[in-house]
Amino acid sequence: MSETVYQQHAYRSNQIPPQKPCPEKTLAQRLLSAGQRMLPWSRPTQTVSTRTAQVSPSQWQKMKATAPNQECFWNEQTLEGLTGNIWVRVYLILSGLGKITLLFITPVFLIILLLTYLLSAGELVHHIIDFSIRYFMFVILPSSIIWGQFELYNRGYWKPKLLRKLLDARKLFELNRRTGMVTLYKWGGKVRYSYPFVEFDCILATTPSQQGLVNYSLLLAHRYSGSMHGVPLGVLVTPHETVAEYYRLWNMIQCYMDVTQPLPDILLLEEARPKDPTTVAYDQQTGRNPRYWRDMSDDAYAEAITQIEAKQSKMSETGPEIDIFHPHHHRVHHP
After folding, report:
1. Which of 152, 192, 279, 331 might form a disulfide with 262, Cβ 3.0–4.6 angstroms?
2. Residue 204, beta-bridge partner list
3. Residue 86 and residue 149: Cα distance in Å, rounded?
4. Closest CA to 172 of 154, 159, 190, 196
5. If we measure between CA atoms, which residue out of 181, 227, 196, 194 comes closest to residue 31?
6. Residue 93 CA from chain centroid, whole number
């Protein structure tokens, strides 16, 4: 089964084709000359970044209940880097106003209208009816459409193509475990480039913030194309994490792309584990509970994450380093 699922060029850390030396003036070299650091390729371990897409079991269950048709950005096949857009904020504000209008303003309006009718002894009945019709046409009806459509859209039941194109999060990049390809997108969803995972260098870049703090960002720079556009892996975590956390994120990304390794053992990927052949074999061998994360209480989950962080703080963030230019030469990484 694994031979049919994983394509020939899928990444395998134990079968890396020798890579060509890095040419001059690549994005990686420009960044490194500016004092940034390159993270090593390694034989990945099951070390994970606990700061990646933090979501509790109750939040996960709520998401699955309210939007059962919504695809997760990370599954057994692809990891998608996404970003929102300004239209989503506008849409949220409009739907929020529609909800407030229907649930709060309209009841008050109706009470005032009723009191006006009673106090006027029916003298203004024609004006009240006319005003009520106008309020229904220009306030209640639009608010109902906007809020109702938002609820249907949010639950995954009705997504018109034009609205989906306008509102869905913009895809920045895609890492495909089964093909071993890394794809970067332009505005409008067009492909900027697509290359094998092993042809990228992982760079940890630093930039000072206005508050004088150091912000980190992790990106993949293609080694051979000369493209000045990197793959922003840093969107998966917050910009104020420790350097060690970025090493763990890079290890987890390598583990995810390596089809000789099971999927990283995190809540977001638990539902995908039965759909990945290598992971299925690993879970059968280890007897892993298939709902280990999802059936936890939030308190138990928080405690488990704390224990993982304590355990990992005493371990190397990555596995043995791999010299991808001489793939038979491995050395142990000592951070």
Report:
1. 279
2. 37, 218
3. 19
4. 190
5. 227
6. 23
CB-count burial class (<10 Å; 0-12, 13-18, 19+) for 196: middle
CA distance 211 to 208: 8
- Measured CA angle at 10 (ends 9, 14), to 5 deg: 100
> Can you say whether the dihedral through the CA atoms of 9, 10, 14, 16 is positive or negative?
positive
What Rg do the C-alpha atoms of the chain give, in angstroms? 26
Burial 254-281 (b: 16+ CB within 10 A, else e): bbbbbbbbbbbbbbbbbbbbeebbbbbe
pLDDT along the chain (335 residues), means of 10: 78 90 76 82 91 84 78 89 66 78 85 79 74 84 81 69 63 94 89 94 82 81 89 84 91 96 94 96 96 94 93 89 71 42
pLDDT at 290: 95
CB 205 within 8 A of CB 219: yes
Q: DSSP 3-state assignment of 192? A: strand
Q: What is d(CA 103, CA 189) in angstroms, rounded to the nearest whole number?
A: 38
Token duo for residue 130 = 């006319």
Place of tokens 């019709």: 133
The H or E element that residue 183 is part of is strand 181-185
C-alpha 178/C-alpha 256 separation (Å) is 10
Residue 102 confidence (pLDDT) = 83
Lateral strand order in the sheet of 181-185? 78-83, 170-176, 181-185, 191-196
Predicted pLDDT of residue 332: 43
